[in-house]
Design goal:
The chain has about 90 residues and is of the alpha+beta class. It is about 40% helix and about 25% strand. The chain has a single domain, classed as Outer Surface Protein A, domain 3 (Alpha-Beta Complex), CATH 3.90.930. The protein is built from 3 helices and 6 strands, in the order E-E-E-E-H-E-H-H-E. The strands form 2 sheets. A 3-stranded antiparallel sheet has the order 5-1-6. The protein has a 3-stranded antiparallel sheet with strand order 2-3-4, with no helix packed on it. A hairpin with a 2-residue loop joins strand 2 and strand 3. The model has no long low-confidence stretch (mean pLDDT about 95).
Length: about 90
């Protein structure tokens, strides 16, 4: 049985919280990334590596009145925004 892909925080990324907003700094480029509300929620959720299905289960339980397809699409978009610059890594 193949292991499920897990996503987690890049351990080199620096996190700064200002009020309720989170800013991340790429360890290689020193580029600063601002997390919107969806990105912040996902960043907090992946403090420990998890699979996409685990993310989906948490979001679906938190938002039972939202169409599951929309949740999945929005979650993929948020995850891609964190994966592209390497703020989140695959395990």
């Amino acid at each position: 049985m193949a292991e499920e892909t897990r996503y987690g925080r890049n351990p080199g990324v620096t996190e700064t919280i200002v009020d309720s907003e989170i800013f991340l700094v790429d360890p290689d480029t020193q580029e600063v990334f601002y997390l919107d509300e969806a990105g912040t929620a996902l960043w907090r959720l992946i403090e420990a590596p998890q699979s996409f299905d685990e993310f989906l289960a948490v979001y679906s339980a938190a938002f039972p009145d939202i169409d599951p397809g929309r949740i999945e699409t929005d979650l993929k978009e948020s995850l891609d925004k964190l994966l592209e610059p390497g703020l989140v890594v695959v395990f």
